[in-house]
Write a structure and sequence with these properties.
- With about 425 residues, this protein is an alpha/beta fold.
- It has 2 domains: about 230 residues, Rossmann fold, CATH 3.40.50; about 160 residues, Rossmann fold (3-Layer(aba) Sandwich).
- It is built from 16 helices and 14 strands.
- The strands form 2 sheets. Strands 3-4-2-1-5-6-7-8 form an 8-stranded mixed beta sheet, with helices on both faces.
- α1 packs across α16, α3 packs parallel to α4 and α4 runs parallel beside α6.
Length: about 425
Amino acid sequence: MIDTTALHAQLLTRMSNHTTGSQTLQVGFVTTGLYFDPEQAQNQARFAALSRVSGGEIFAVVYNPDFLRYSLGNYTLRSLLLPSWLGGYGIVRSSVRALLYVLFVLGTALRIRLSGRRPYDVLVSSDPFKSGLLALMAGRILGIPFAVELNGNYTAAMKLDDGSTGSWYMRAKAQFADFIMPRVLKRAAAIKLLYEAQLGDLATPELLAKTHVFHNLVPLEPFRSQASEERYFILLGHPWLLKGVDLAIQAFLEVSERHPEYHLRVVGYCPNPEPFEKLAAGHPRIHLQPAGVPHSEAIGLINRSFALLLPSRTEGMGRVLLEAMAASKPVVGACVDGIPRVIRHEQNGLLFECGNAKDLARQLDRLMSDPEFARRLGENAKADVHTRLSPEAYQVAYVTFLGIAAGGVGTKRAA
């Protein structure tokens, strides 16, 4: 456990704004190389918050020339511009894109090293697998430390068979991840987790001593409760099997006759919705939208909903949980991975046994049978997300994470 109060004050002093003449901490963020959208609200909010205390560059793949050297506060994109036909899914396109990104990051690091400059104090990777390995190698070239973020249960997600992630390619990728991740984590200067048990079987005293557990930043401003003529539960996300869409459909079918005024809405990209449509059996109050919707429309769906469901089989945190909580909505989630760190059962939401559709049905029935109970959960959720899980709390925790990864600033570890 790290004494963060004094450390945060020291870091803020060191990483104060440019007008004081002091030097800000310089960070190089290594993304996965899939695609980075600098106009996404979450990216805008994250780097605006970090720009108050740091600056640097973000290594990223883009397909729009307007995003070359694009700025997010004190952070600038160091972009690899690729043709649009290399975007999207597919083994060949993904492999070509990955190879080009590796050459781009390592080539840039080598050129920086040969120039004698030191533009970063620390590198941060967005996962312990692809970008983690890249950050490790680039850090070795540059002679600087690197830190790792864990944003999910990587091998569990890869091994779930939903028709796309269950391919031989994904299984081989999962095996490779099992080999790479412990080696990357062992060499990292600091590790960010979303929940305490996220390292799983990889956990050792050495690794646990380097961990920092806190939520990811979620912009909360657009989310507020709005009136709706239709009472509905909303489930947002993909892939659908991983998100537990089948469980939500089964649970709703079990209780829908007792509550004829409620609907279930499922929204998110799903290339093969037929099994879920077959399970719903044409129920008039189950609405499946496998094409997904723009983020602005998703905000409205959350704001007008009765409650939000997240019955995932694996989930690092669940951004939609925080969004719904900010809109004063009761949330129902599976008791798995990082969800119980967000949802406190019967305080700011409800938990159910992961994979158990009958238990999920019981929790849905509790909300529909007692609207006052649902309202109280929603109010508690709003208070919690604006304090314990707020963007401000994220900034404090991330400043500490960056400072320790970069070499301390007088840090001390306490038992």
